[in-house]
Amino acid sequence: MKIIMLGAPGAGKGTQAKRIADKWQIPHVSTGDIFRANIKQGTELGNKAKAFIDKGMLVPDELTIELVIDRLQQSDCANGYVLDGYPRTIPQAESLTSELNKLGESVDYAINVDVPDENIVRRMGGRRACLTCGATYHIAYAQPKQEGICDRCQNALVLRDDDKPETVLKRLDVYHAQTQPLIEYYENQGILRTVDGTMDMEDVFKAIVDILGA
Ligand code: AP5
Ligand code: MG
């Protein structure tokens, strides 16, 4: 099964993508996590990406498209994947469609996690992220067992640099301008499904399971 997660920054794409990946035993491919891992390791890609991410802007398509196409060709993706944070622009979506077409394949579902902007700003300040394994928590809605420590890998949790309120507002602007048009793109392909992302995490997941057919 090939799934795309759509939604504003902080809508809960990562939270739900991890659960989908666990339940369906497919890899969770998050471009944000790939960039953050590269930033942490100080790679050339990481240094280039950081300049854009810290400003709340998108990393240019030239740096992003090839990276994802390569990742999806790895053997663990043979039975499908859940893509989180990709595509984010029409050129990214078009390239994904055409790469899959070459293989006679296509995306099965684009799941749009719908959350209004007002809720987003409130959520982001409370998020804590593990930059080692990509897990996310929330100081009120999804607490780790031990404060400040990742349940999965026991590394320290941090407030992401791009979760400062002014950067979140910029990310929302960029989302509306560049990523929201993908909703229509996938609606036209007949694979868009929208879930109400303001429900609690468990209910959002139930709605997704209903769509994907457990
Ligand atoms: P990325 O890491 O993808 O960030 P994002 O899209 O801004 O999304 P987030 O990870 O911030 O939010 P999320 O939807 O995953 O929400 P989460 O589950 O954590 O990208 C970062 C940057 O990298 C981009 O800004 C861009 O610069 C660059 N980039 C990445 N991909 C790119 C691409 N394809 N092209 C170009 N540039 C790219 O949830 C948020 C919080 O809310 C958490 O604390 C969570 O615990 C909580 N929460 C989740 N669900 C609920 C709920 N139902 N109720 C209450 N709280 C909830
Ligand atoms: Mg995320």
Assigned CATH class: Alpha Beta
In the CATH classification, which architecture applies?
A: 3-Layer(aba) Sandwich
The end-to-end span amounts to 12 Å
Fill in the CATH topology: Rossmann fold
Task: Please tally the helical runs, counting DSSP H or I stretches of 4 or more residues.
Answer: 9
Radius of gyration: 16 Å
Which strand order spans the largest sheet, edge to edge or round the barrel?
2-3-1-4-8
Strand residue percentage: 15-25%
Number of strands: 8
- Helix-strand makeup class: alpha/beta
CATH H-level homologous superfamily name: P-loop containing nucleotide triphosphate hydrolases
Share of helix among residues?
Answer: 40-55%
Count the domains: 1
From N to C, what is the helix and strand string?
EHEHHHEHEHEEEHHEH
Overall spatial form: globular
Low-confidence stretches: none
Most strands sheet: 5 strands, parallel
Mean of the pLDDT scores? Answer: 95
Distinct compounds present: BIS(adenosine)-5'-pentaphosphate, magnesium ion
